[in-house]
Amino acid sequence: MRPTVRHNGGYTDPAWWGRVWWTCAGCVLLWPMLSLTEFTPWEIFSPESLRPTVRFVADFYPPKLEAEFLILVAHETWRTVAMATVGLTLAMLLAIPCALLSVRTLSLSALSGSMATAPAMLRQTVRWVLVVLRSVPELIWALVFVRVVGLGPTAGVLAIALTYAGMLGKVYADILESSDTHPTHTLLRNGSGRLQALAYALLPQSAGELTSYTVYRWECAIRSSVVLGFVGAGGLGQLMDASMKMFNGAEVATILLVFMALVMLSDRVSAWLRDGLT
């Protein structure tokens, strides 16, 4: 932290001009991007946009609370959670071995310095695979799988599994590599196997962070499941899509309230798991 400098009876921050310069430079760079995206938020407040918006939002109250509709929402909510959970589980089954293969800390050949050619090539290939998986959004994967397996949750599960495998594998590897390598290398140099070094050196240091990120990704998968429903993957998203096409604001309000409760619940689960591991 830079100390302030006293000048003419007051104090000045020597980094102030640098912050002003970078702020102005950021605005100059941001302006053509805003122009390219045709970002015009003031159009929301035009009379042509306000009238249908006000009518639609006014329909939100009161939410639809009929028993038959609530049963349908509960069924689709369970389907959404199941889609997110199964998709994330499949993603972990692919991400964990990929992360372990791409972690330099567990490489025996790297103990003496640089990695051998074959392990280095394998590590880089696995990282490229993870890049490919996470570079394609789950929405694109869902559109592909809807054409392959048809409408329904299967397309959503496969889409979440592929995209999140790339995300989880990359972050898992980064978390493990950022841990203290001394205990791991000590075990490996004394004849320990890589799985033992992982279990007794790496995981105890990183278990809390790995769990927290996994639960966060589960929360993201729930949100993704809702979005994927708009392209025919089922769940709350498909139900909301149908309600919005019918301009039924009361049904949309009920679905949104359930969705917010779902995200709050996943946040509490994440906090509970973090507290249990610390």
Descriptors:
10 helices; 278 residues; 2% strand; 2 domains; MetI-like fold; mainly alpha; two-stranded antiparallel ribbon
Description:
α3 packs antiparallel against α8 and α5 runs antiparallel to α6. The protein has a two-stranded antiparallel sheet. 74% of the residues lie in helices and 2% in strands. By secondary structure, it is an all-alpha fold. It is built from 10 helices and 2 strands; from the N terminus they run ββαααααααααα. The mean pLDDT is 80. The two termini are 31 Å apart. It folds into 2 domains: 42 residues; 211 residues, MetI-like fold.
CATH architecture of the largest domain, by name, is Orthogonal Bundle
> Radius of gyration over alpha carbons?
25 Å
Q: What proportion of the residues form beta strands (DSSP E)?
A: under 5%
Mean pLDDT: 80
Contiguous helical run count: 10
Low-confidence stretches: none
> How would a textbook summarize the main sheet?
2 strands, antiparallel
Tell me the helix content: over 70%
> Strands of the biggest beta sheet: in what spatial order?
1-2
Q: What is the domain total for the residues? A: 2
Q: Which H/E pattern describes the elements?
A: EEHHHHHHHHHH
Shape: globular
> How many extended strands?
2
| Terminal residue distance | 31 Å
The CATH C-level class name of the largest domain = Mainly Alpha
The structure class reads: mainly alpha
CATH topology of the largest domain: MetI-like fold
Under CATH, the homologous superfamily of the largest domain reads MetI-like
